[in-house]
Amino acid sequence: MSPTSNEHFIKASAKSARKYAYALCVLVTAIAGGWAMTDIFSVDGYTVIEIVLLFLFTLTFVWISAAFWSAIIGFVLLMLRRDPVTLKQALVKNQSGELDTRHRQAIIMPVYNEDTNRIMSGFEACIKEIEKSGNLAHFDFYMLSDTQQKPLIEAELVAWNKLIARMGNDVAAHMFYRRREKNVNRKVGNVSDFCERWGANYQSMIVLDADSLMTADSMLTLVKTLQSNPKAGLIQTVPIPIRQNTLFGRFLQFASSLYCPTLAAGQAFWQTDTANYWGHNAIIRIDAFMASCGLPHLPGDVPFGGEILSHDFVEAALLRRAGWHVYLLADLEGSYEEVPSNIIDYATRDRRWVQGNLQHLGLLKTDDLHNVSKLHFVLGAFAYVSSLVWFVLLLLSTIDATVRAASEDVFFTATHQLFPAWPVDKSDSIFALLFATALLLIGPKFLSLIHALVYRRYEFGGAFKLIISTLIEIVVAIVIAPLMMAYHAYFVLNALAGKNVSWNAQSREGRTVPWSEALKRTWAATTLAVLWGALTWYLTPLLFWWLAPVLIGLILGAPIIHYSSSLRMGIAARKHGIFICPCEVIEQPVMKTLRLSLNNLDKQSRFNKSVPALPAEKWTEMPIQCLRNRDKQTNPDNQQNSSKINPVLVDNK
Questions:
Q1: Around Cβ 181, how many Cβ atoms within 10 Å?
Q2: Which of 159, 199, 408, 525 could potentially form a cystine with 286 if both were Cys, beta carbons 3.0 to 4.6 Å apart?
């Protein structure tokens, strides 16, 4: 069969112009914010504290401006119904085109000490999607287990044999379960092991996480798009959270469903063929991955040395370094995931990501990385470092206000001065800057709301419920922001201090956090906030009121964590139409399959624990890349057959 039609071919025009235009918008906005703050501080000259405050404020203004302009661009493209990469009229990508049947594809799910029922049910749902599409013959499915706990190992074997029996011989012939005795190099080693043993049999692999769920349309569209673009090394989708029942989980699910399309479209516009990889719900060209993405251990100590923790960003950067294109399909629907259901579990996951993303900063000097790949590293790290910057800003502002409060005003600064030097009122400038900051932070939310009201309101339960839910989401985001700032700032300091992080299975199921755990995780922040508030109230009452929203969020940390994790409140919110999401208004068949499978698993009889057979290996070594100094590599842009390239000369030391 011939390759797929040009419908899935991606051609991005004016790539450099897009990046420069985006960067210019961000920098002009940040400079304007910095200039406004400079004007405010210029009244009495500049102290050392004010100079530091000005620098930190400008830094954070760059950060929020970057997100703001991505949202603006995405909003315009969505309203005009334009594809963010090609800029052509947006089409429904997942309805036409045929697979190039000369190649086979793999769908892999790496797992590590996960809930057995959930991973088997999710895997089954994805397999059935491909089976129903009529394309089963072109796919194989691998569950790649790194599970180390004996009870879970036995449970996986039992569940796998049950799954094989349910699916029948024809489907089972395409299903394989492999478990490593030792999880060397964690997920990186898990996927590398698959690639080296069986990767040569396949053109691509769709990587699923333990909580991933994808429709047949989305998976087939990924394959068609990869096949239609010979230079594409990786194509990332935008996974949307599903199956959330706690109040916090539903808040995240709603926010992602509403805001992600706008932000992702804007990012896809300026990233063009240098997008990022988020670790799952993506398709990867296997020969490109194997030739370009063997990850070494980095020299030095934590946080910059050791295993590469957040491997996905690095793998995308290495693919792009080798000349492969990396795309974000921002408008492809049918890609789902699950998220931690409470603030504590969410923060625990972020603790791992903090160290992994900080580690990327040590790779900025790696030879020949694309500048946009380096920008991904910087933005990923600053997503967490920004919390520490905001905390330091608040702390220095308190010190500055305290010093000013303790100082007497001097109106006559010269011996022979006719008129006093009255204080200059800059309140108008201060309020204008505050308004601009709020606009940058909250404006994108309202743009997403406008787009949803025009095109998607029924997916969120109607216009009224959508508007109310958005307003409540903004309030909830403001309330929990101080607590997340405190956690992230603490995590960054821990990582910089060299404290390593454990990488355990992620908590995914909904649970109400008990008071004891909530108090244990918040007492330090609460104590700090009480002391901070008392000091500012006594010395600078005006500053106290400015800090009140932050202090209240920290003081009420335990109640916020406890009640936001409530299943009862989450279910009540759904009953009253709050945080309704598209996945709940229209249940996709793949979600129904997952739900029914989870409900029926425990009703089945017991099966044996026999170890399933694996396909014959076709060993191909995956070379380790040099992330310091290395020679130039072959670029597939100059090659007739991109599947035959040898893109990297590696350092084999």
A1: 8
A2: 199
Residue at token pair 């010979």: 230
150-156 own/partner pairs: CB under 8 Å, 24+ apart: 152/113, 152/114, 152/116, 153/179, 154/609, 155/116, 156/111, 156/116, 156/119, 156/120
Residue 165 CB coordination number (10 Å): 13
| φ/ψ (deg, to 5) at 132 | -65, -25
pLDDT at position 638 is 40
Q: What is the pLDDT of residues 449-483, one digit of tens each?
A: 999 999 999 999 999 999 999 999 999 999 999 99
Whose structure tokens read 């109230």? 537
The H-assigned helical ranges of 497-556 are: 515-539, 541-555
In angstroms, the first-to-last Cα distance of the chain is 44
Q: How many CB atoms lie within 10 A of CB 360?
A: 25
The predicted-structure confidence for 260-293, as pLDDT tens digits, reads as follows: 999 999 999 999 999 999 999 999 999 999 999 9
- Single out the residue of 264, 311, 261 nearest to residue 289, CA to CA: 311
Q: Fill in the DSSP letter of residue 43.
A: B
Is residue 551 within 8 Å of 228, Cβ to Cβ? no
Question: Above 60 in pLDDT, residue 408?
Answer: no
Amino acid at the residue 424:
V
pLDDT at res. 639: 39
331 three-class SS? coil
Full DSSP string of 74-93:
HHHHHHHTB-TTT-SBP--G
Beta carbons within 10 angstroms of residue 104's beta carbon: 15
CA angle (231 as vertex; 228, 232 as ends), nearest 5: 70
> Please, what is the average pLDDT of the chain?
89
Q: What is the mean pLDDT of residues 58-68?
A: 96
Model confidence, pTM: 0.91
Considering only residues 384 and 12, tell me which one the structure prediction assigns the higher pLDDT. 384
Give Cα separations from 617 to 74, 199, 620 (angstroms).
Answer: 45, 9, 9
The answer to whether the beta carbons of residues 647 and 621 sit under 8 Å apart is no
* Range 75-94 average pLDDT: 86
Two tokens at 182? 């030792």
Spatial neighbors of 97 by CB under 8 A, at least 6 apart, are 4, 5, 7, 8, 224, 228
Residue spans of the domains in the chain: they are 105-210+588-604
The residues, any chain, with a CB within 8 Å of residue 98's CB and separated by 6 or more, are: 1, 4, 5, 224
